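Quick one, T. Sequence first:
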Amino acid sequence: MAAKTILILGGGVGGMIAANELRATLPGEHRVVLIERNAYHAFAPSFLWVMTGDRRPEQVQRPLAALLRPGIEFVNATAEGLDLPTRQVVTTRGVFPFDYLIVALGAELAPESVPGVAEGAHSFYTLDCAARLHEALRTFSRGRIAVVVAAMPYKCPGAPHEAAMLIRDYFQRRGLSEKVEVHLYTPETQPMPVAGPELGNAVLQLLEAKGIQFHPGHKLVAVDPATKSVQFQQGTADTFDLLVVIPPHRAPRLMHEAALTNAGGWVPVNPPTLETMHEGVFAIGDVTAIPVPGRWKPDVPLMLPKAGVFAHVQAEVVASRITAQIQGRKPDQTFCGDGYCMLEAGEDLAGFAYGNFFAEPSPEVKLKQIGKAWHVGKVLLEKWWLSTPGWKRDLYGFALRAGSRAYGIPATV
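Structure tokens:
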């Protein structure tokens, strides 16, 4: 059996899991190469805790190399070109040939695509942005805070709602709840519409109970930092004293230049196998476009949410299929569309949303009762994720699976 090279672009959730799974299942003569421009891996679900000051930035990141199994070749470089006919990737540290390619580059943030956002708004979608937002919240004592979803799609569909609730809780703890208003604006018709009306209504009730004003159907078109105002597509405008924007997302330039994207700008794949139109070339995680059944907008299908839980499971599926092909077996593992998230609500409380996004006629996601147990579960998930490979990761994974089974929830970790 000739030795193969599996190249993985991106060291986020999907890339790291794919590399570790491949290294655990393939003999050592096969190369597993991970290319990532960042030397440190940050746990994105904890950015909200950095925003509120419950975590320091250094607590939620680790050297990426420390999270990879021995035998994985980690190349700290930026991918600059993808030549699919010759099966090569050009990087800032040379050219790398491949037999199999896994694209896990995620989604890029594009705040500059909406006038005024880059200059006039905070965000929590990077570690540095979350830390700067914490400083802004720390010195804020009175006024109107606007949390605005700029465009669809965006990473982690529950994050804007969590952010609004955690910000509200932050000022309540400071005794300033009567002096600070929190407003949430989104182009969506309800919270997380792809998940269905049951979850949307549950989240809406949470927001209302917290005193957060929810404004659906508001698509942001411009921010005026001078007048501290936001303009929306329908011609309305509102003011703010502090602005938090979930910026527009887009696929990396590399994907467009390699002609891997569709008309919507994302990478289409075969949903069960995650393979692109090119044999042996897979895409996983936020960079992909995977339609879900039902709930169609006019002529546009709603897509699978961009969330780490899906990247995790997709990475396992792709690693299994590549291993089977290399070993001469027929691949049989497929991506089934199950997903979940822990929805932080403040006061050390969280809910657990779960469901099958490939279910017919349309996904129906349920929310387990809000409680402290799910918050503790997210803390454990954070510790598991930032631990080193090997028995620690396996132990946390076992605990999470056992907890999920005890509550009758499909486990995808």
